[in-house]
């Protein structure tokens, strides 16, 4: 390696890079153990009707407490799960667990599960969803799969076919982080989504930035025209909630209404007496 570095003038194996590679290998190893030793948990964040304050459901968010390191954010470890081929097993567990949990919630409440690009690349997503629903007894319309534009960017006929089969089963499909990709509007034409989740970045800036507010207004209008539900992500303060109310946004999610919480905490939101089972 030293020879290469001399010849090309590049430091392929600088101490810095070597350290990064070792850390990465260790992270992958720890994730393998996390999977085998059931270290993953799900947190649920409430989805709320802005008009009534009623909880419409919860989004399942993957959590990992890495021994010796503390909580690792999913944005950091999910890409590693995808690259190391572990995503299949972990996401099957997420689906299974979220459906089991939601089956005990009141029937008016649904559960949202994030599905990544890598999951669409693997065969068997449809069967995994079908199996999780059957085993949990959760009605299909109470399961909402959140996909990002990157799923549709691959745009293989198989991706669209899988989405359509899932939707035909009764499962709801939401477009997550709407507005952050390259051609969000184009995807609205090609696939009949049930929900648009307006990305947090627009909500964050809507009070100061007229453009952000205009985009939110436009998306709410489009969603109403198309008969799609619109939800605004990342609502952190009352001012944002009020502005969203003025724009006619029906549903919200964010720290103002509830942080991601344990299943037990989430269950107390609707009260044990109201549990469907
Ligand atoms: P996402 O699907 O857009 O999830 C929303 C993220 O925004 C969550 O971050 C949530 O904690 C955070 N959030 C919610 N309300 C607020 C707010 O008011 N302010 C701020 N600043 N943030 C808020 P989290 O849990 O770190 O998840 C990050 C991303 O990781 C998710 O983004 C999702 O893309 C991915 N992810 C999480 N769980 C799973 C999973 O089970 N499978 C897959 N494939 N991806 C997952
Ligand atoms: Mg999501
Ligand atoms: Mg999102
Ligand atoms: Mg987001």
Tell me what the structure shows.
There is one protein chain. The chain is an alpha/beta fold. It has helices at residues 2-8, 15-36, 74-83, 87-102, 117-121, 125-136, 149-154, 157-169, 184-190, 200-205, 210-226, 238-246, 263-270, and strands spanning 40-49, 55-66, 70-72, 110-114, 143-147, 172-178, 195-198, 229-232, 251-252. Strands 1-2-4-5-6-7-8-9 form an eight-stranded mixed beta barrel, surrounded by five helices. A hairpin with a 3-residue loop joins strand 2 (55-66) and strand 3 (70-72). Helix 4 (87-102) runs parallel beside helix 6 and helix 6 runs parallel beside helix 8 (157-169). The chain is globular, with a radius of gyration of 21 Å. The chain starts with a helix and ends in a 7-residue tail after the last helix. The structure holds ligand C2E and magnesium ion (3 copies). One magnesium ion (MG) is lined by residues 177, 199-200, 233.
Q: What composes the largest sheet?
A: 8 strands, mixed, barrel
The backbone outline, from C-alpha atoms, is globular
Which small compounds were modeled alongside the protein?
Answer: ligand C2E, magnesium ion
Going across the major beta sheet, what is the strand order? 1-2-4-5-6-7-8-9
GO biological process, one term: cellular response to nitric oxide
Keywords: Membrane, Transmembrane, Transmembrane helix
GO molecular function: cyclic-guanylate-specific phosphodiesterase activity
Protein name: Diguanylate cyclase
Annotation keywords:
277 residues, 9 strands, 19% strand, alpha/beta, binds ligand C2E, disordered C terminus, 8-stranded mixed beta barrel, disordered N terminus
